[in-house]
Predict the structure.
Amino acid sequence: MFLHGFKIELRRLLIIFVICVGYGLLFGLQWWLLFTGLCLYLAWLFYQMYRLNKWLIRGTDAPPESSGLWGEIFDNMYKLQCQQQAETENLQAVIKRIQEITSALKDGIIILDWRGHLDFWNPAAQRMIGFRTKDQGLSIINFIRDPKFVQYFEGDNYAEPLDLQSPRHSSKQLQIQITRFGQQERLIVIRDITQVHNLEKMRQDFVANVSHELRTPLTVINGYVETISDNNKTPAWEKPLQQIMQQGKRMSLLINDLLVLSKLETTEAGHNQKELELEPLLISIKNEAEALGNEKQQTIRLQCDEPIRILANEKEIHSAFSNLAINAVKYTPDHGVIDLHLWKNENHVYFSVTDNGPGIDSKHLPRLTERFYRVDASRNSATGGTGLGLAIVKHVLLRHDGELKITSELGKGSTFTCVLPLHTH
C-alpha cells in the first residue's frame, strides 16, 4: 500500500515537472515555471500537513479525504487511532472489572507506589483504615502508625503476615500481608481476624484458668497420696498407690507445661531480656540431663566453640534448651550418646542436640512442634512426657526471633537445632 501511494506521488511530481518544462520551453520561462510548480507543490504539502494536524487535534472525526501518499497516511493513522481506542476501551473494561472484584472482597486491598505512597485502595480497606479520596499520594505510615507496622513495612521481610490492632477501632484485630511487585511497588492485603483473635484469646484464657484451678487440688491429692503411700502397710495397695503417684506427677508436669505455654502466649516478647552468657547455662543443663539419664548410663558431651553472649530471657532460653536435652535423654536408649553443641557465625547463634536414638520418620517432622502431637502414642507412657516440650521450644524461639530446625533418620538418631539472631544490645 505504501509503495502504491508513493508511486502516485512520484507520478504527480512527474506531471508537474513535464507541464512546467513544456510550457517553459514554449514561452522561454522554464526556470520560472519550474520554481512556480515547486512552490505550488510545497503549498499543497503544507496544506495536507495542516489538515493532518487539525484532524489530530479533533481526534474523533473521520480522516480528511485525500489521495496518494497523504491519503494512505490519513487512512493508516485512522486505523491506528481506532486500534488504540479499542485497546483503551478493553483496558478500561479490565480496570472496571478489577475494581468491581476488589470492591466485592471482604479483605482490604491497598496498592502503594515505589515510595510507599497510596495509589489505590478498595472499599474494604477504606472502612478498615479510614481513607478519603484526597489521601491518594500520601504515605501509608500516616494512617498506620503502630511501631510494629512501621518496623515491618521498612524491614522489607514480608515472608510472614503481621497481626496488629486496628488504627480505627481498638476492638478489632487486623492481619496485614505485604507483597512486592512491578517497579518496587507494594500490594497490601488487610484481613479482619477479630473473631479468630477473640477465639484464640478465649482458648488461652481457658487453658490458663483451668491449669491454675487444677494445680491446687492436684497438689492436695498428690500430698495425701504420698502420705498414704508412706504409711501403707498393705502390700495389695502398694502398686495402685505407686501408679496414682506416677500419674499425679505426670498431670502436675502437664499443668506446669500448660502454664508455661500460656505465659509465653500472653506476655509481650522481649520481657526481662538481658545479656546472657550461654556456656554456664549449658553446663547447668548438661548436669541436669546427666542426673536424669544416670540410670541409663548415657554419655552426654558438651562442646562450646567459644564464649557467646546473646540478648535473651534467661528463664525462657533455659526452658527451651533444657527441653531439647531432656527429650534426648528420654528417647535415647541405654548407653547412648548425646552431643550438645554451641557455635556461631557472623549473624546467628546455633545450639544443637544430637542423639543416636531411634530416629523419626520424615513425614512426622513438620508436626513435631504441635501441642500433644505424638509420633507413636505408646511413647507417651514409656517416657512420661507431656507432649508440650517442643511446642514450648518453638514458642520461646519465636519470641527471640529464632527458629527450630529438625533433622532425623530412622535408626540413626535426630538433631534438633536452635537458631537465634546474634545481637547483644
Remarks:
- The chain has four domains: 2-95, 105-192, 200-266, 274-421.
